[in-house]
């Protein structure tokens, strides 16, 4: 069981390092949709593997894709929020939230 967790954590590390660069090259929304679709396909495939090594490899791939989803969706959310609220517009709204 520890090997499965180590494989997953290694995939998160690798995905965090490479998915940001891939999303800059191919587009954030495109990569987000591709990662979500690939996670679904690989996740279902992981249920039907026959060997332990195949399962470890698929868990690693799932982790790479999940890290990509986390990184890309965070950046998309920050960019969307930042474009909606500039500094002058954000301060009164924050004051209203802290007053409540």
TrEMBL record:
Predominant cellular place of this UniProt entry's protein: membrane
Highest taxon of the lineage: Eukaryota
GO molecular function: transmembrane transporter activity
Compartments where found: Membrane
Membrane topology summary: Multi-pass membrane protein
Residues of the Major facilitator superfamily (MFS) profile domain: 1-100
This protein's GO CC annotations: membrane
Keyword Membrane belongs to the record: yes
Record has Membrane as a keyword: yes
Positions of transmembrane segments: 30-49, 55-76
Assigned keywords, A-Z: Membrane, Transmembrane, Transmembrane helix
Protein name: Solute carrier family 22 member 6-B
Lineage of producing organism: Eukaryota, Metazoa, Ecdysozoa, Arthropoda, Crustacea
């Amino acid at each position: 069981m520890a090997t499965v967790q180590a494989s997953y954590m290694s995939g998160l590390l690798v995905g965090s390092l490479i998915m940001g660069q891939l999303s800059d090259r191919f587009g954030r929304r495109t990569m987000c949709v591709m990662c979500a679709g690939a996670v679904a396909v690989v996740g279902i495939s992981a249920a039907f593997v026959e060997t332990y090594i195949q399962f470890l490899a698929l868990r690693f791939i799932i982790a790479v894709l999940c890290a990509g989803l986390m990184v890309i969706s965070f950046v998309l959310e920050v960019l969307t929020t930042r474009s909606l609220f500039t500094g002058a517009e954000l301060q009164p709204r924050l004051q209203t939230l802290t007053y409540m």
